[in-house]
Design goal:
By secondary structure, the chain is α/β, with parallel strands linked by helices. It has two domains: 2-222, Rossmann fold; 225-400, N-(1-d-carboxylethyl)-l-norvaline Dehydrogenase, domain 2, CATH 1.10.1040.10. It contains 18 helices and twelve strands. It has helices at residues 11-23, 35-44, 73-82, 95-111, 125-133, 150-159, 164-168, 224-247, 253-257, 260-281, 285-299, 308-311, 315-318, 326-334, 340-350, 358-370, 372-378, 387-400, and strands at residues 2-7, 26-32, 46-51, 58-62, 64-68, 85-88, 139-143, 174-177, 179-182, 195-197, 202-206, 217-220. Strand 3 (46-51) and strand 4 (58-62) form a beta hairpin. The protein is globular and about 60 Å long. It binds nicotinamide-adenine-dinucleotide and D-Mannitol-1-phosphate (44H). One of its GO terms (biological process) is mannitol catabolic process.
Length: 401
Amino acid sequence: MKQAIHFGAGNIGRGFIGALFSESGYHVSFVDVAETIIDGLNAQGKYRVKLAQEKDESILVENVSGINNMKDEEAVIAKIQQATYLTTAIGPNILPRIAPLIARGIEARVTGNFATGADLEPMSELDVASDMSAGSEKLYIIACENQIGATDILKGHIMSHLSDEAKADLAGKVYFFNSAVDRIVPIQEGGSLDVLVEPYYEWVVETTEDLPEVSGMTIVDDLAPFIERKLFTVNTGHAVIAYHGYLAGKPTIDKTLADPEIEREVRETLKETGAYLVKQYGLDEKTHLAYIDKNIARFKNAYLNDGVTRVGRAPIRKLGPEDRLVRPAVQAQKAGLSYSHLAKAIAAAMLFDYAEDEEAVKIQELIAQSGPELVLKEVSGLEADSELAQEVVRQYRAMKK
Ligand SMILES: NC(=O)c1ccc[n+]([C@@H]2O[C@H](COP(=O)([O-])OP(=O)(O)OC[C@H]3O[C@@H](n4cnc5c(N)ncnc54)[C@H](O)[C@@H]3O)[C@@H](O)[C@H]2O)c1
Ligand SMILES: O=P(O)(O)OC[C@@H](O)[C@@H](O)[C@H](O)[C@H](O)CO
């Protein structure tokens, strides 16, 4: 059977990427530190992806297993040697931590070093033949994270752990492609392996190579408009709802959007990112407005029960210079476009004082030390005298009252 190895058996891993590989005839080996999930995958070998909609509908995901990378690095290395695809959905902050192990797998694959062979599953002649016809002598690596250039970033970490011999031998054998991944998958309740997901999905991969078929994967030769359109519409909109919802004491995204004031704020913010995207990528304005409407309808899906604290999670990452709030605001300012609603969203993110989120706690500590200006400088790369930083601080002080 064709092999895919996926790092991160969480919401998107099981609910989206792993499910697509399984549907495409791959055996999916999930790599994770969550013992219960890994044990469950090995015990059951299957789970269901349930659609968050009125009609009861679910998809059976089969041919799955799990490896705990804290306990069995050799099994991960062995799987990397067999895989056609290696994907991640683990969170941008974790990519540097898994890179050394991925590098060991690649090293073993391209040079033969480190290979124990002990954990390699025997493949039938038919499997070998079908793998060769699918091009499995090549390994395709795709990071599926909400981050611009996530695969390039992962590649940089992997390269720093490879020997010169392996680096020289990668061409034609190991490929790295950036991607944009879109499907809302909330935190799962109940502890089963099954995953509740929204019906909509989009997975866009940037390459000019001819890839072995994976259902649901869209290939483009330039990802920039896709990832920016996604990140600065779906994720900007989501973040605005999460941070304003949190401040208003709302539990979920759909319940927050039921407040017409907040819906108006979301639309105004997305008009700002939209004006930048339309100008930058020559998008058709009407089509983009329809894209905004479509996403607001997705956010209203009450079957998802998606918490504002999940969507607002990791505010240091979300306030980063290349992320969903600061980058479009900086770009809008540079282009002479309006950015006041984005500034308000940045201010709201700095007021996200959720005690169970380590990054939120860290931001509150920085603010307590030296005010919001320090966060904007240290986290967002904005100098205190920039117009954007001044507007954010003004909004922050107004909202804090
Ligand atoms: N959930 C969504 O709606 C959604 C949609 C699109 C993209 N994404 C992106 O997908 C990525 C994953 O998000 P998620 O919602 O699935 O998160 P998640 O927390 O559900 O899954 C992440 C998984 O990674 C595992 N993990 C953490 N550290 C690890 C380590 N060192 N080694 C191995 N496994 C480790 C965790 O145990 C967890 O199972 C993020 O980049 C996110 O932005 C999420
Ligand atoms: O995953 P994050 O923390 O980058 O962002 C939270 C949500 O906006 C995100 O997970 C969305 O649900 C997802 O990106 C939809 O495709």
